[in-house]
Design brief:
Blueprint lengths: L1 H24 L8 H18 L5 H12 L9 E2 L2 E2 L2
Antiparallel strand pairs: 1-2
Amino acid sequence: MGKLATIDVALDEMLVNLAAIVLRLSKPELTRTPEARRALTQSVHQYAVCAARSTDPRVHELKSELEKTLKPSLRIVAIDGVKVS
């Protein structure tokens, strides 16, 4: 079991490092094109598949952060100083 635990910890560390890379690449100025958005979406989904089997809470927290990068940012719209959405 010792070797399996070591492998598990190493995989979790790799997932944490991978998430950091994908988070850096998820910035709006880097994902302006449709191709870049699709690549980000695919990376986040692939990360989520790998993270699903992890027991490390950092991995699951980073998965949630990455999934938030796919949601469109909302903005408040006002007409004549009155918020409409």
